[in-house]
Amino acid sequence: MKFIGLFATALFFAGFQWSESASISTVNVEQGGSPRLINLGTVDCKSYFADDAVIRNWTEAKAFCKTLGMKLATITTSTQIAFLKNVYNGTTFAGSHWIDARDSFEERQFTWDETKTPVTSLSSFTFRNTGMPFQTCLAYISAGTPDIYVYPCETQIQTLCET
């Protein structure tokens, strides 16, 4: 009888330990983990990755990329602009994606957050004001004709990371 009691106790603790370890992945998913990160390819010695499965605000997007060992994407050359335009396909890379640029506290002036340098490489894009107050962060819009949209940083959209 002691053996059965000992066996039942061991079985209980084994089940408890299994359920504790099984809940770890649930916590990671709730913290913004993505089951689907899209590798868009490499250009100018950097690779771009889009997360179209989860929407985040700008700060969360920046933190998400960092947890993956990446950073929010910068678009600094005409080659990168052409590359991102060419990888748009309407199914796996479409819509608004946060990039690393945000308001430099001067009207219509933005800086790359990582380097604190002015955003000059996006002059070929049309900047679209979303009509909302406090537009402080930039998003790349992958579409037939890509644009840069100015959004409040709290807006929930998709993420574009780079390595």
Automatic annotation (TrEMBL):
SMART domains: CLECT. Residues 43-162 form the C-type lectin domain. InterPro entries: C-type_lectin-like, C-type_lectin-like/link_sf, CTDL_fold. GO terms for molecular function: carbohydrate binding. Keywords: Lectin, Signal. It comes from the Eukaryota. CDD domains: CLECT. The keyword Signal applies. PROSITE patterns: C_TYPE_LECTIN_2. Residues 1-21 form the signal peptide. Pfam families: Lectin_C. This is C-type lectin domain family 4 member F. It comes from Orchesella cincta. The lineage of its organism: Eukaryota, Metazoa, Ecdysozoa, Arthropoda, Hexapoda.
